[in-house]
Input
Amino acid sequence: MDGCAALCFPDGGEWFQGYFYVSSEMDEMTLGLFGVEIPVDDCVRCCHGGYREYELTIINYSTEQEARVTIQKTGGDFCILDSTDQGGDTSPAKLHFETLSMLTDEKACTFIRRAFPSISNRCQRDEVNKTRYLLTWLTN
Output
């Protein structure tokens, strides 16, 4: 599947939420994405967010099915996401995203309020403005 994703990384990077938009001649759909950081050894973890691992849950809203895949995040804020399982054709899911553009600060907050109401509703209005959110547009 080819498409674009919008991901929201709240400050700290312990988790992220997003959407994957698939648009092709045969199919058009939106998949939900939710990543939770997996602890890695301090010798490989970058304190600046350059390398992290996540368990990514991919949610198909139309079938209500979920799939999970372990991914690596490299490159800090302007990240690349890759699945760690490169097990050939038998692998249930492979993933590769590269950042095309990103929003920060007020521009990110404006988009988050519209696209990620579950995140913005959990925060007081001032907290959304004070917390550093990074919104990343990726493509595969």
About this structure: Residues 41 and 130 are 31 Å apart (CA to CA). The chain has one domain: 3-139. The two ends are 8 Å apart (CA to CA). The chain has three helices and eight strands.
